[in-house]
Amino acid sequence: MATTVVALLIGKDKAWRIHVGDSRLYRLREGSLTQLTRDHSFKNEMIDIYGEGSIEVQSIPKYKACLLTHAVGVERNVEVKVAEVDIQEDDVYLLCSDGLTGEVEDDEIRSILMQYIHPKKARRMLIEAANRKRGRDNITVIVVRIDKNRRR
């Protein structure tokens, strides 16, 4: 068995993201939702080689496109992606598994994060949205709002 990992280490003025697999980190800033990680998938590896619109990428069967190319527990050594992330007051960070992103589109995720200010309520609403869509996979969600006076 293998698993994926996404983590966010938050310091005073900056943060660092750690990422393996297809669990994702998003940032909501000033109404714009940005995916800060890139899935370690067969499709993305093919895009790196052939380019986004290539016939090779377009012809990948759906079942093969999402196959993971990096995961924890498959090999003794795994390539872990670590990168610095700038943080600002009122940023919202979403750490989640593909149980959420496989069911809920980014526009709906953005809408829920905008509507529910409190991280616990936003987390609950995101999980409910995924379950309403079928919830076929484990749904893991962490929501963090940056507040310079108090981290939530």
Keywords:
152 residues, alpha+beta, Phosphatase 2c, domain 1, four-stranded antiparallel beta sheet, three-stranded antiparallel beta sheet, 6 helices, globular
**Which H/E pattern describes the elements?**
EEEEHHHEEHHHE
Mean pLDDT: 91
CATH superfamily caption: PPM-type phosphatase domain
Low-confidence spans: pLDDT under 50, at least 5 residues? none
SSE layout and pairing:
Blueprint lengths: L4 E6 L3 E7 L3 E6 L2 E4 L6 H9 L4 H4 L3 H4 L15 E6 L5 E5 L1 H4 L4 H10 L3 H14 L8 E5 L7
Antiparallel strand pairs: 1-2, 2-5, 3-4, 3-6, 6-7
Helix pairs in contact: 5-6
Question: Brief description of this entry?
Answer:
The protein is α+β, with helices and mostly antiparallel strands. It contains six helices and seven strands, in the order ββββαααββαααβ.
What does this structure look like?
The chain has 152 residues and is α+β, with helices and mostly antiparallel strands. The chain has a single domain (5-145), classed as 4-Layer Sandwich (Phosphatase 2c, domain 1), CATH 3.60.40.10. Helix content is 30%, strand content 26%. It has 6 helices and 7 strands. The chain has helices at residues 42-50, 55-58, 62-65, 98-101, 106-115, 119-132; strands at 5-10, 14-20, 24-29, 32-35, 81-86, 92-96, 141-145. It has a 4-stranded antiparallel beta sheet with strand order 4-3-6-7. Strands 1-2-5 form a 3-stranded antiparallel beta sheet, with no helix packed on it. Helix 5 (106-115) packs antiparallel against helix 6. The protein is globular. 26% of the residues are buried. The model has no long low-confidence stretch (mean pLDDT 91).
